[in-house]
Amino acid sequence: MATLRLNQEPKPVDDVYFDHEDAEEADYPDFIEFRRQFYKYQYEFISRAEDASNELVSFYKKLAFDENAQEYYGASISGRVLQVRRYHIDLYIDFNLSIRKSKETFEKNCNALWTQIESMFSLMSEDNKDYITDFPKKADGKKAVVYKALFIRWQKALDVFDACESQTNKNISKISRDIKLSNKKMPRHKTKEVNDYREYAIRLIEAAKAGNLFNEVSTPMTVGRKRKTPV
Hints:
This protein is mostly helical.
């Protein structure tokens, strides 16, 4: 056999021993950008929340704008603050077995080992909800290709919310026209669209306040309605 066994307890990693030259190459640029944009809007939403935790607002502000925090939370291309834990893996080889059988056993163990690694990433996310380890997923577990249009939609929601909050007598047509929500012309359509974006913004503000904004990434803007998502 050729069996791998992971020692579950991580060993401390000394910064001098494991320096930047030994680090893996940087993450995918599109994922770094997704993280960076997400942290920015997470702060924008919570900064508009009533009775939000001052500690959480301050922390999200650091994630959005502080270079050191962005490095530590994987949202910076330049420079890397390492979050490394070292694990030991024992390898057992039985030379009485054929190479073919040993390779088969080894590959099976590798798959099992990767499953353990994924579960450790999941625990990392559960313990620290603000650390994003992957793109959002659809219900079937596949990568959701939503992030390119997502932040355009979130910005429109913020703009609508701010416009509605700043106006005593809300001029819906002017809000829709100024923010360029769509090419809708009928006043009733404009009113519905502005109200939809405002309700969406309120939902995102509450999610950020509760520390659950990432759960809203793959959720449709108008939950329960048959409607194309605006971009």
